[in-house]
Write a structure and sequence with these properties.
This protein is an alpha+beta fold and 313 residues long. It has 2 domains: 165 residues, Sandwich (Jelly Rolls); 105 residues, Homeodomain-like (Arc Repressor Mutant, subunit A, Orthogonal Bundle). The chain contains 12 helices and 8 strands. Strands 1, 2, 3, 4, 5, 6, 7 and 8 form an 8-stranded mixed beta sheet that branches. A hairpin with a 2-residue loop joins strand 4 and strand 5. Helix 3 crosses helix 5, helix 4 packs antiparallel against helix 5 and helix 9 crosses helix 10. It is globular.
């Protein structure tokens, strides 16, 4: 079943200067917000209050300590807000193939950013709950990250990156389902190659050759770690990229496919329709028109968290 399409996709440049690759803010009085998705990675930490949270995993009423992580294309929205305040951290997906690529080699962090959100029933989203001690530490880290907004970004990029790494590490160790053995080095190398250059003309043979593993064995290794075969993961990354280009009116659908890594425009359209349930042209039209979803679909059961999401009394 394809992921339903949100009416609004939030562009990185809509909120942040192009030079900023990691941005955090504290929303003291968060209001209702329509269903949307993003072209970047997002972490949302509920600090107080509650709401009806619509997401690709279904509806919930989160409370303090509940955390959501979204990959590009995973939609959500806030309704029936009651004193909601939360932290947001958004970061450029390019970090996954560069500054954060080493995380794919770490069992906990690799699961948080790749294996769990890319599992078929997760649809690009992770939900978890932090116990009080971890929640308080998470808030301190976010406060430090938010305070960096007053500093020169380029000279403090290392500070931003260091705090983001600590936040991701804290979240990763609080996912209930623990990782298995350390991922095979060939899978880690392949993830770095695809995340760093998703538009390259990769084939199973060339990708397996770059990591020096026989293709059939490579598929088994990759699926075990990521939850998808390598070519399906490549398609997912290209589709994430395509949704960004489709927001530009000056690009034909065929050009979007080419810029996203597909040489055949028809094949690109078929892949897009299979994933999103509509053509690229229809996706663009729905985004431009700001149409509402007819309903919030239940996408499946998420990876379990340490307790059920808090419900208001």
């Amino acid at each position: 079943m394809p992921d339903p399409l949100p009416p609004t996709q939030i562009a990185w440049k809509h909120y942040y200067q192009s030079v900023r690759r990691i941005v955090a803010k504290f929303n003291r009085n968060h209001g209702n917000y329509r269903i949307h998705d993003h072209e970047f990675m997002e972490i949302a930490v509920i600090a107080g209050g509650t709401c009806l949270h619509h997401s690709v995993l279904g509806d919930s009423r989160p409370g303090p300590g509940d955390v959501f992580l979204f990959r590009p294309g995973a939609w959500h929205g806030y309704a029936e807000v009651q004193g909601l305040c939360l932290y947001n951290c958004c970061f450029d997906t390019a970090l996954l193939g560069r500054e954060l690529s080493w995380m794919a080699d770490e069992p906990y962090l690799g699961r948080l950013l790749w294996a769990i959100p890319l599992a078929p029933k997760q649809h690009g989203m992770v939900s978890l709950h932090l116990p009080d001690k971890e929640f308080n530490r998470c808030r301190r880290l976010f406060d430090d990250l938010c305070s960096l907004a007053r500093e020169d970004y380029l000279s403090h990029f290392g500070d931003h990156l260091g705090l983001l790494v600590q936040i991701l590490s804290l979240l990763a160790r609080n996912v209930v389902e623990k990782p298995g053995a350390k991922p095979h080095r060939a899978v880690i190398a392949a993830l770095k190659l695809v995340d760093d250059a998703p538009t390259e003309p990769w084939t199973l043979k060339t990708l397996a050759g770059r990591v020096n593993v026989e293709p059939t064995y490579f598929v088994r290794l990759f699926r075990t770690v990521v939850g998808l075969p390598p070519m399906a993961y490549l398609e997912r990354r290209r589709l994430e990229l395509a949704t960004t280009f489709l927001r530009r009116n000056d690009l034909a659908v065929g050009e979007v496919g080419t810029m996203s890594g597909w040489l055949d425009a028809n094949y690109f359209s078929r892949c897009f329709r299979k994933h999103f349930g509509m053509t690229p042209s229809r996706y663009r039209a729905r985004f431009m028109d700001g149409q509402k979803l007819p309903q919030v679909a239940r996408a499946g059961t998420p990876i379990p968290v340490k307790r059920e999401l808090a419900r208001p009394k």
